[in-house]
Amino acid sequence: MRVFVVHDAQGNISAAVTAPDDSAIPAIATPSGLAMTEISDLPIDPEEFENREKLEEFAADFRVDVVGMSRRAAVVRRTS
User: Fold this and answer.
1) Which residues of the chain have pLDDT under 70?
2) Which residues contact 31 (CB under 8 A, 6 or more apart)?
3) DSSP E strands: which ranges in 8-71?
4) Domain residues of the chain, as ranges?
5) What distances in angstroms separate CA 78 from CA 20, 31, 65, 66, one per listed residue?
6) What is the DSSP letter of 78?
């Protein structure tokens, strides 16, 4: 399963989308100032994204590592 997240320039995640491994990149219109990035090395099972509560926890606990980001990025745990 492929995972794509919508995020701002600081890496704050506002949405996540899953797609089958053999699918094309989903076409998602993102608001100005946001980007969509495919995530590699996801720290949780993508199947958990079907649970809205787990998805909200993921977005609150992680952000996209935007430093040196390419087409695929990693997520890192937020620090307080």
Assistant:
1) 68-74, 80
2) none
3) 13-19, 35-39, 62-64
4) 2-77
5) 27, 23, 10, 13
6) -
